[in-house]
Amino acid sequence: MNEIRYVNIPGNFITIDVEEWFHILNANIPEKKDWETLPSIAEKGTYKILEILEKSNNKATFFVLGWVAEKYPKLIRDISNLGHEIASHGYYHEELYKISEERWKEDVLKSKYILEDITGKEVIGYRAPGFSSLNYIETIKKLLDLGFKYDSSLFPAKRETGGNNKFDSRPFYLIQKGLKIYEFPVSVYKNGVFSIPLGGGYSRITPIPLLRHVIKKVKKLNNGYFLFYLHPREVLKEQPKLSDLPLIKKYKTYVGLKNYDKKVSILSENYNFVSIKDSSVFKT
Fold first, then answer.
1. Cα within 13 Å of Cα(233), Cβ side
2. Contact in structure between 20 and 64 (CB atoms under 8 Å)
3. Which residues are 85's β-sheet partners?
């Protein structure tokens, strides 16, 4: 922890993890060899998010799975051509702590090269599947060696895949071998009793007035910084669903889908969102 330097990066950031409906961690999902035969919603959900952002002239960072990018290269080009940022979410959506370091590096670089080949633009950011990096500092250092300029895998609260509530919800950087890499964590409101992460199932069940109140608190505590996350499947009322999830997992995965697209639209209308690559630290 003494290696990191917290830094003020005011701004509202909305981030989208572009993956399929079956890319649910800690669940019995179909085997990779069967993915191509399954119905797909990643394209439909992502285009819906793009429509929402276009109406309010907002820009976002899309953390894209390499597997999805190979299947829908036009979607990735469209995202990029509309002025949004394309960043890496890895290739296969596997938890970092379940695979070897060598396999992780291959996964990350494969995704990075695919995305750069499709867009013709450098990919500078990465987010671990499910925010699953347990040793964030070591992960960040490895990403720096792989040519990334920032990470957004830190989830500063408890969760079933990764998460570490010892960190603040503020951006920080560290320097290694004379190079600097930044961390853009998910925003989490903490009041000493409970934590409210801004994104995913937490935001789906939180009423808009309370959500806006929490965002106001978060921005005040973090010197104007606020980072939100969602997935393409979350803005679709109808979608395929995994059938054998435990009750609690099923609730977390599917609660609040009915009107979530409207909630995202309201947030987009009320906040000026920019992509991470367009933040102040990369403008100097």
1. 19
2. no
3. 61
Q: Are 162 and 178 in contact (CB under 8 A)?
A: no
Please tell me the total count of domains within the chain: 1
Instruction: Tell me how far apart the alpha carbons of residues 60 and 79 are, in angstroms, rounded to a whole number.
Output: 9
How does pLDDT run across 123-173, given as a tens digit for each residue? 999 999 999 877 888 899 999 999 999 999 998 877 666 667 778 899 999
Q: Cα separation of 276 and 274, whole Å?
A: 7
- Alpha-carbon distance 137 to 154, whole Å? 10
User: Residue 103 belongs to a domain with what CATH number?
Assistant: 3.20.20.370
**pTM for the whole structure:** 0.96
Note whether 88 and 63 are within 8 A (CB): yes
Pairing assessment for the beta strands 11-18 and 225-230 based on DSSP bridges: parallel
Strands 225-230 and 195-197: unpaired
- Closest of 274, 264, 261 to residue 225, by C-alpha: 274
Q: Residue 181: helix, strand or coil by DSSP?
A: strand
Reading the block at residue 57, the tokens are: 């002239």
CA-to-CA dists, residue 105 to 96, 147, 247, angstroms: 10, 12, 34
Residue 264 belongs to domain spanning: 5-282
Q: How many residues does the chain have?
A: 284
Q: In this predicted model, what pLDDT tens digit does every residue of 19-33 receive, in sequence order?
A: 999 999 888 899 999
